[in-house]
Amino acid sequence: MGKRNHYRWLLCLTLLLVVVSLSACSTHEKTTKQSNTKTEQTKSKSKNKAKTKAKSKKTIATELKNSSKKQLVYSPLGDSISVGLMSNSVHDRFSSQFARTLAKETGKKVTEEGAAETGKTATNFGLPNVQTIIDQKPDLVTVEFGTNDGADVNNPQALPDYQNSIDQILTQLQSQTKAKIILITSWSAPDGPYAQNYLRFDKALTALGKKHNVPVVNLESIWQRNPSFTGAPASITEPVWGKPADKMHPNQKGHDAIAKALTKTINEPIDK
User: Could you please report the per-residue DSSP string of 162-185?
Assistant: First the structure.
């Protein structure tokens, strides 16, 4: 009788261990599945966030690329810098370089039009010619003034006139075109006679860029840090432009740098 009870006790104990073991395995398997599910969900969320972030990264370049237009018009509005004075050739000036870059970035044909004249300001040329730019039906416009405006150091009305003219130019372009607009600040030699005054005009231009939600390419960091980017030999300027070399205008290196700065700007995320 004692032996039977002993065997029964061992059998019950064995069965109990089996049940406990099976229960533990089931719990472990369930926990593992839950953990794997959470890991997959986390990975999925990360992928979705990455996709959303990639989709939301709009730039001037991507918006022009994704537009329904098969051909694009680029219209630079400015003074002698936009004319290309002191670059090696018209083909090598910053605006023409930038037009070619736009074509590569968007995969579309880009026509360069615009309006620019040596020695002019935002007031006596930019504003009177803004309708010319509008009539060109541009997809992108660069507005480059300040170099001649800021040189009028003895005129207390020069800065207010500049601000008012740029403000009106931007207002008209934004209301009468769908063009992307980029503002470009003034240019000087590091030791130029009007360098300090240009900084005042550049500050005003930056404020107007914020007001109109338009990006500003600040050339100050280029001409202040790179003295060799200003001035060109007569052998380049006389045959091409019919003007002698000077120590104020950007040379070919300067034009290359301006073109690169514009390329960087069109690839920066747009804040909307």
Answer: HHHHHHHHHHHHHHH---EEEEE-
Q: Decide: 143 and 166 in contact? Cβ < 8 Å.
A: yes
Taking the C-alpha atoms of residue 155 and residue 166, their distance in angstroms, rounded to an integer, is 18
Q: Residue 172 class from Cβ within 10 Å (0-12 exposed, 13-18 middle, 19+ buried)?
A: middle
DSSP tag of 157: T
Measured CA to CA, the distance from residue 91 to residue 97 in angstroms comes to: 7
Rounded Cα distance between 21 and 69, Å, is 70
Q: How does 203-214 read in b/e, with b if 16+ C-beta sit within 10 Å? A: ebbeebbeebeb
Q: How large a percentage of the chain has pLDDT more than 70?
A: 79
Q: Centre a 10 Å sphere on the Cβ of residue 176 and count the other Cβ atoms it contains.
A: 14
Q: Which of 29, 122, 32 is nearest to 79 (CA)?
A: 122
247 token code pair:
């120590």
Closest CA to 115 of 96, 143, 140: 143
CB-based contact 229:192 (threshold 8 Å): no
Please give the structure tokens belonging to residue 146: 């300040």
| pTM of the complete model beyond 0.85 | no
